[in-house]
Amino acid sequence: MTRLTQILSLALGSALLTGTAAAQDAQSADLDALLACRTIEQDSARLACMDARLEELAGAIESRSIAVVDRERVRAVERDGFGLSMPGLGGLTEVFRGGSEPEEAETLEDGTEIVYDDSGAIDEMRNVPVEVYETTRTGDLRITLANGQVWQQIDTTRVRVPRSQRSDLRADIRGGALGSHFMTLSYGGRAFRARRIQ
Fold first, then answer.
1. How far is it, in rounded angstroms, from Cα 80 to Cα 20?
2. In tens digits, what is the pLDDT along the chain, a chain of 198 residues?
3. Which of 18, 56, 64, 130 could form a disulfide with 23 if both were Cys (CB 3.0 to 4.6 A apart)?
4. What is the secondary structure of 55-109 as a DSSP string?
5. pTM of the full predicted structure?
6. Nearest CA among 95, 90, 76 for reference residue 13
């Protein structure tokens, strides 16, 4: 029963995801069939039903026709991809947003605060540690964040961070219209338009 309990909790606490709607419907039916086994009153029949459905589910996972993805892994992908155009990610993350109240914010270990919009998508990243602050030859800023993201200033806003403020510099980044983003640095300067380049 231990294996059964582990697989059931994994299946119930995760999403079963594939690339097509037809495959998603089939997998939903597979999961529904597995869960339906719980309604069988006779112990031996219920166990036989669950064993059969679990073998089908395990086979689908092993053949990679079903991928089991936990919510935290999807959240990490969303955070890593913030600022990049990732059109395929929307469908994946939508699975976790349906049917539950969206989170408003979460704070990571490094102090970064992730703010979500009403749909559950990332709207802002606040208080992100800055690893490298540099000015390009054209006078624009290039900011490398501690999370590995690299952002480039794309407007003419004059931003100068005093040297004394650069050691513990942090950035706030919020989404704007049409996929644009605005960055503000913690020393209290003006917001400037920025594009994620890496």
1. 25
2. 333 444 444 444 444 444 444 445 545 567 788 889 999 999 999 999 999 999 888 888 888 877 777 777 777 878 888 888 765 555 555 555 554 555 678 899 999 999 988 877 888 999 999 999 888 888 889 999 999 999 999 999 988 888 887 788 999 999 887 778 999 998 877 899 999 998
3. 18
4. HHHHHHHHTTSSEEE-HHHHHHHHHHHTTS--TTHHHHHHHHHTTSPPP-EEE-T
5. 0.64
6. 95
Cα–Cα distance between 196 and 65 in angstroms, integer?
A: 33
The terminus-to-terminus CA distance of the chain in angstroms comes to: 47
**Can you state the angle between helices 2-12 and 21-36, rounded to 10 degrees?**
140
Give the DSSP H or E segment for 8.
helix 2-12
Contact assessment for residue 194 and residue 173, using Cβ atoms and an 8 Å cutoff: yes
Residue-wise pLDDT tens digits, 55-88? 888 888 888 877 777 777 777 878 888 888 765 5
Query: What is the C-alpha to C-alpha distance for residues 110 and 56, in angstroms, rounded to an integer?
Result: 42
Identify whether the C-beta of residue 151 lies closer than 8 Å to the C-beta of residue 142: yes
Torsion of CA 175, 181, 184, 189, to 10 degrees: -130
| Phi, psi of 61, deg, nearest 5 | -70, -45
Structure-block tokens of residue 10: 């994994």
Q: How far is CA 33 from CA 155, 174, 194, in A?
A: 55, 43, 49
